[in-house]
Amino acid sequence: VNVCDRWNRNKTDNLQYAFFNGVGYESWENIWGIWNQIDDRDAEALRRIASIERGFGRLLQSPGWEPFAPTLRYGTFTSRWPGKDEALWTIVNRNEFEMTGPEIEVGYKPGLHYYDLWHGIELKPEVNGSTATLSFSLGARGYGAILATDQLTGGEERLLNTMHLLAERPLSSYSNEWHFLPQHIVPVASTLGATSTQ
Hints:
The protein is α+β, with helices and mostly antiparallel strands and 198 residues long.
């Protein structure tokens, strides 16, 4: 399944739909010869979303998918993707402002680690019995991803490092100005009229 809205100039809604639902996004800019460029902010968001979705494809196929898993804040929505020994949360902030602080409560067991994949860092949970409260930031109309696991695989460590480097520049610093490619009518010389049918 791919989300696609080829004529839309701002792709944020569509990218959030795709990320929340763990599906693909069709980055269609050349629409049958008409150029509808993805702005810099959405293009960078797409790069980060694609990195996470490609890294956790096995979890995004989970039959235990829990859309609209509980969150602690108004305007943020999350999907939980459980696996055998780990779980992934894909999160979107529908608010027009940044969110910082406690965002979700999750199950806790000793030895479990929590990672803010979007920022590429390990989180220190606030543990209360069998529950852990996770605090992190979500940009305005932004994204987040959390991984809970006993131990990172080599691929997960590499992805965490990549995301940490990308997060050094926040999405808000990228331009959301829409660009288009002007089209021009090219004059075509008239053909001579036919004098006969043969």
